Amino acid sequence: MEREYKEILLLTGLDEINEEELQRFKFFVLDEFKISRSKLDKATNRTELADQLIQSAGPVSAVTKTICIFRKLSYMHAANRLQEQKNKVDSRYMTNTKKKGTQEVEERSKDENCSGASATSKDEASKKHSAPEVCPQAKPQKKQIVAGQEATREGLQKDPLALLVLKATMPFECETQKGKQTIFHATVATETNFFFVKVLSAEFKDKFTPHRTIKISNYLWYSKFLEVTSSSIVVEADADHQVCVPNSIKEKAGRTPMIKKLKTEPRGTIVNGMFKVQKIIEQRRDRVLYGIHDSTGEMEVLVFGNQDQVKCEEGDKIRLTFFEVSKRGEKIQLKSGPYSFFKVIKATKPKTEKESAC
């Protein structure tokens, strides 16, 4: 299966762009892949470049990162073709491994089951390697397995996943592979983790209602977020499949990350939060570079797009949705992408005291 990812990376990905586009692509490779400039310069052709990308990130992640760079550069035709081919390979992989994965989960469930039958004989329990006899201890082990499964997923997911909706943004218009499209973002959670969701179809807005448990299937699972498209299925979960999310996860999902922590996150990490503007470092019509700060440090935020209508001053706050951790020279920064949303919250100005009458 890895061979197929390697093939589409080269034939459907790198071979789809011309020489000038390839040089621009290499510029962003330094941000997305752990490849030194000297090593990258040694890649004299597309085959050698593909080898370096795969050695750095692995076949699947190399394809995902390449699609991400293509989208940043607005190589929508190449990004669209590569994504389509990746979805086909993902689908074949999921079909081949579905039965095996189901059997493994069933075996684990049997091992963790603390029924009376498994506890009647110590000898029988030791042969079957069953879970401890005390039932409450089995529950945390099950959660650990679920968390492990969540951490290893990637690509097209056909099976339904139950999630509690924590919040959702209002739909907004952005430039996608299909041209201008109305999308929105959401934050959802399971019993063990929370996720950011990029919803590329506004028709699902009514489903993503806060405090509601939904089931999604036929969606894309990336390492940093979930993606729901018009081909996905979103339904409200019935009473037997409600998700109970601990308050600690809800609080973590709604918390703005501290700048000190953001500087340690890997590049490409998705960031949502509200930050205070310390200064406006650079301002152009199509981009603005902000300086933000909190009690742990300072950081830069690069916002692309038409900024004529955005009136932001020092002291205002900016709400960032679906920004990503990036690198500018030696500095770690937050950068907007084609699916990001940016909003200015004006600082409240103190009322001026009325002059007292003489």
Automatic annotation (TrEMBL):
Database matches in SMART domains: PYRIN
SUPFAM superfamilies assigned: DEATH domain (SSF47986), HIN-2000 domain-like (SSF159141)
Localization: Nucleus
Biological source species: Phodopus roborovskii (Roborovski's desert hamster)
Domain HIN-200 stretches: 153-345
Family per similarity comment: Belongs to the HIN-200 family.
Amino acid composition bias (Basic and acidic residues), ranges on this chain: 101-113, 121-131
Gene Ontology CC terms, in alphabetical order: AIM2 inflammasome complex; nucleoplasm
Keyword Electron transport: no
Gene Ontology molecular function, alphabetical: double-stranded DNA binding
Protein known as: Aim2 protein
GO BP of this protein: activation of innate immune response; cellular response to interferon-beta; inflammatory response
Domain Pyrin residue range list: 1-88
Cited PROSITE patterns: DAPIN, HIN_200
Keyword Nucleus: yes
Chain positions covered by the region annotation Disordered: 87-149
This protein's UniProt keywords: Inflammatory response, Nucleus
